[in-house]
Amino acid sequence: MADNPAAGVRTPVGPPTAAVVQLLRSRIRTDQRGEFIESGRIAVRWFEPEVGPETHQTLTEQTRLIWAALRAVTRPVVIEASDGRRTWGLRIGPAARDEVIRRQVPLVRPGVQRFRLVT
Predict the structure, then answer these.
(1) Which end of the chain has fewer CB atoms at under 10 Å, N or C?
(2) How far are the Cα atoms of 7, 26, 48, 73 from residue 107, in angstroms, in the given order?
(3) pLDDT in tens, 59-70
(4) Residue 66: which region, alpha, beta or left (left: phi > 0; alpha: psi -120 to 50)?
């Protein structure tokens, strides 16, 4: 059973799709509490039984390359919640970091909690 793409999403031309890669860029948003920068995310999905072992191996290698490229253009950061709890293991690109510092805006991960970039 094939997935139907959402409105506005074109079906790729070429070989059959074996995996879905979702890349959401970070963006500046505003709500009733003011401006914030919403974090981006990357997700890769496929099902090994559907693609077979050779394609699974290829997709695993390609996913490693995607993550290597992401790590190459971002830097680790620490963020702090309003209660002082710090979270490690996140990454941010230089342009997003500069915007956070310049605008003095909080960061938001999926959800509603806001975080301060620890510099």
Answers:
(1) N
(2) 29, 10, 35, 19
(3) 999 999 989 999
(4) alpha
